[in-house]
Amino acid sequence: MLAQSYTGERDQLIIGGNASIFRISYDGFSRVYDERSGLTFGATGLLKIRPPYYVVGKYHWFEKEAIVTDNNVPQLQKWKENWYNVGVRYVSYGERKVVSYFGFGFAFFNLNEIGPVSVFGQQPGKRNAKGFFLDGGLAYRFMKYASLDFELEVTSAGIEGKSGFEGSSVGGYLFSLGLNVFVF
Q: What is the CA radius of gyration of the chain?
């Protein structure tokens, strides 16, 4: 059986989707929503700058619901979080079927709390946060133009210009399994 060559073929633009387990870092989150973790979905796009560097863009969304009691009346509380990552990734697709990669860049969060209370101790509503992300993973190129990825992403972002360190960050830890397609 001949070895399949992957060098330079359809690795200029790579798109993919993933399912992940996300754990938000914000300490006050579990007071309202019981658990900090949940299933989330996302999309990724990679554009080769020059080997082995890519510009990476990622999108994720995370939602939680809880029933909270306000003035002895149970009400539905919702958390909606979307974030976008833009950065650089180092990856070397070549003759090997399994490669490792890592990246870093900026993270931009849009939050919306709907309900009677807020995890921030203020009025519920829309908020923004900015920060950074670091990611790393393994890609298994099981076909000439497709790969399965396992990735760990760490994001950190503070609300409205505040520090985004552990405990006060709306970012967190993301463990993903995804499928990427090599477009051209």
A: 19
